[in-house]
Amino acid sequence: MEDKLTKFLELTSKKVSLIELCKELQEEPLGIYGLKNRAEKAGYDIAYELVDDDITFYNLGENKDHRTQDVSFISDNGHFKCMVISSPLIGNKAQQLSIIKDVYKKAKEEGIKHVFLCGDLISGKYSMTNSLHDSNFLTDIESQIDYFISHFPKEEGITTYFITGRKDQDKKISVGSRIAEARDDMVYLGNCNADFKIDNSTIKLLNSPLSKTYTISYRPQQFGNSFRAEDKPESLWIGGLCQVDSINFRGINIFSIPSLCGTTDEMMAKRYENTVGALILDIKSDKKGKIDSIKYTILPYYQTDKNDYKKHNNSSAQYTNPTEEKVPEVDANRYYKWIKNGFSVEDFKAEHHVSDLELDGILEVCNLNGNDVKQVVNSAGDLVFLKPTFSRKVIEKLPKDSQYIKVANFGIVSDTHIGNRENQLHSLYDFYDEAARRGITDIYHGGDISDGFYNITSRITYPEQTPFKTFDDQGLYILRAYPYKKGIVTHLITGNHDLTHFRNGGANIGNWLEASRRDIEYLGHNEATIYIDNVLKLGLRHPIDGSSKSFSYKIQNKIENMPSGDKENILAYAHYHKYYYAMIRNTHAFMLPAFCAPTQFERDAGLLNYVGGLFLTVYYDSRNGNVIYLDAEPRLYDKKDYWDEYGKDEEKVRKLVDKNKRRLGMR
Ligand SMILES: [Fe+2]
Ligand SMILES: [Fe+2]
Q1: pTM (predicted TM-score)
Q2: Longest Cα pair distance anywhere in the chain, in angstroms?
């Protein structure tokens, strides 16, 4: 009977008449109605229509709805920690089940109970005529779903909440419902988007309905802009863009969620850049249950394995060696050394007493080891070996297992603009206090420590904005007022505002501060590269151009113009007075907020200005400086935190500065 039902569903995928169904299924009309009834019980919508004196049947597809609505979470003492992932694209040859498993293992180690998956669970179907048809190893939706159900990681104590994405759409099958029905550890929240609550905050999950753009931050900003003020979620997690970035825009904490799949043929065809990894979010709620801050950890994967889909293709049963005999070793390197470039294949076989089959074996072993040796016909008509000019890197083990992981923990501040009346010195003190609490010993400053001295012809409104005008005014004030904390060293570059002092009288405030304060180290003007532990490269930059509307645009341009192999692991861009993170060409790039409220210059130009600093904890491979995990904690201050430091709050600031002077032993 099951077979008949399957056949009935197949036949009704097109409009089909009752008479035809009776013939095909060898049933009386009553039997056909019976099958319609059973199909509906199994969750299909079957339409039927009277046409002349016949009746047609048509399968509208699954009407099963396993969506779970109104999902809410309560934080644990104000903290909610979860993992967010996207786009495993199961069924595609670029699938990376090893990485997905590793990500879940990491979630388990971190004690995470909730994983959110932002769509594109499966690769979806390409028609036979589509040039991308071959990019799937599982060509139809059914087998992709089955594979997902049996292979997608299931970890004790972890529930995966998911939305489906653009890749999971099918006319007949509800991919989300099927998976939710089969897996008790998976909760289906909605098709392409869903809202849920953490305490009193609304989180929106979205699988981008719009295609990826060259400028990374363009879509996140566009989505952030599209909400009416009353509909704004507190946080928005966007899947399907295969990129990672973080932006706080219109008060919404927006994250693009990277993919968990290698670069597919479709991405290649569309020239999409693909960033692979996962995000761990640690969400802190305030007393009202609204998001106070989000600390995020990036788990990047720099390498994927194009053969990964072959490794997990078969039964899920655990394999154990039945004989317990030692597996004979095959020394690929020895064979590879035997093979000489341009050497005759026939001679090789004779010299090493190798059969045709063994030769194929040798080539296969070399290939598995990353050396694709070819056999080609040379100009004399002989079959000879052609060795590759470079070897593929073979991933033996995922870097996460490495015993070489080390941790660097530091703070970054920038654009303090001391001397300007909008300077927020009290926030800078707060940042340094927090750094001391965390046991941080190094803080990097991205420049524009001083507001500089512009002459009256270049910025006409300027004099009234700077209570401290000259080099002496600003220099002496910074010397006394710049936060001093025992055990913390500030490493400083200078920026374009500091440069004005140099222009006016050759005074370099960086040199001057280094000479005057033992806790300040001057690294140079506009740029510096710091080698932490000799391998982890941290770049500080103070560009001189204006910022772009799309946050990522300027820094993407800059990073793309850097030569390969020479890039820093982490790059921090000062000067724009904005907070933004994105992973660009394997570099973790940050834009740094300022420590001044919007200045007159910024207000005149209508520029966005962020106030705050950044704490980073970097887990890196001590052999090569590769970033394994990166914890980013922006400490941002908003309008309610601003002080009028040269007006009504003057007295409070003076007290803070006096305290600092005492710590420094200054009068
Ligand atoms: Fe600045
Ligand atoms: Fe600047």
Answers
A1: 0.84
A2: 105
Q: Tell me how far the alpha carbon of residue 221 lies from the centroid of ligand 2, in angstroms.
A: 24
Q: How many Å lie between the centroid of ligand 2 and the Cα of residue 600?
A: 14
| One domain for residues 538 and 443 | yes
Within 10 angstroms of residue 600's Cβ, the number of other Cβ atoms is: 16
pLDDT at 360: 85
What's the gap in Å between 551 CA and the centre of ligand 1?
16
Domain of residue 110 covers: 72-311
Q: For residue 599, how far is its CA from the centre of ligand 2 (angstroms)?
A: 12
* Residue 643 neighbours by CB distance under 10 Å: 19
The enclosing H or E element of 501 equals helix 496-505
Residue 627: how many CB atoms within 10 A of its CB? 23
CA distance 589 to 583: 6
Examine residue 455 and state whether it is found in any structural domain, yes or no.
yes
> Rounded to the nearest whole angstrom, what is the distance from the C-alpha of residue 505 to the centroid of ligand 1?
21
Q: Report pLDDT for 397.
A: 47
Question: How many Å from the N-terminal Cα to the C-terminal Cα in the chain?
Answer: 95
Does residue 322 lie in a domain region?
Answer: no
What gap in Å lies between CA 503 and CA 608, rounded to an integer? 28
Counted domains in the chain: 4
> Separation of 642 CA from ligand 2 center, angstroms?
21
> 487 has which bridge partners?
none
**pLDDT of res. 400:** 53
State the distance from the centre of ligand 2 to the C-alpha of 592, rounded, in angstroms.
11
Distance 78 CA to ligand 2 centre (A): 37
Angle between helices 18-25 and 2-11 (to 10 degrees): 140
Measured CA to CA, the distance from residue 72 to residue 69 in angstroms comes to 9
Structural domain contains residue 587: yes
In a domain, 115, yes or no: yes
Residue that finishes a domain, picked among 311, 346, 368: 311
646: region left, alpha or beta (phi > 0 left; psi from -120 to 50 alpha): alpha
Short-list 224, 216, 219, CA closest to 274? 216
pLDDT averaged over 10-residue windows placed end to end, the chain, 667 residues: 85 88 88 87 82 81 78 94 97 95 94 97 93 93 95 95 96 92 94 95 95 94 93 96 94 96 94 94 95 95 87 58 67 81 89 86 79 86 84 53 85 96 96 97 97 74 73 95 97 96 94 97 97 96 92 94 89 97 95 94 87 96 90 94 93 96 92
Beta bridge partner(s), residue 297: 280, 631
- Kindly list the protein residues that place their beta carbon closer than 5 angstroms to ligand 2, a single-atom ion: 448, 495-496, 575
Q: How many CB atoms lie within 10 A of CB 45?
A: 14
Distance between Cα 576 and ligand 1 center (Å): 7
CA of residue 645 to ligand 1 center, whole Å: 18
Query: CA nearest 99: which of 264, 299, 272?
Result: 299
Give the residue among 373, 386, 374 at the shortest CA–CA distance from 333. 373
Q: How far is the CA of 594 from the centre of ligand 2 (A)?
A: 10
Q: What Cα–Cα distance (Å) separates residue 328 from each residue in 323, 363, 490?
A: 13, 18, 57
Question: How close is the Cα of 415 to the center of ligand 1, in Å?
Answer: 4
Residues 637, 638, 644: CA angle, nearest 5 degrees: 95
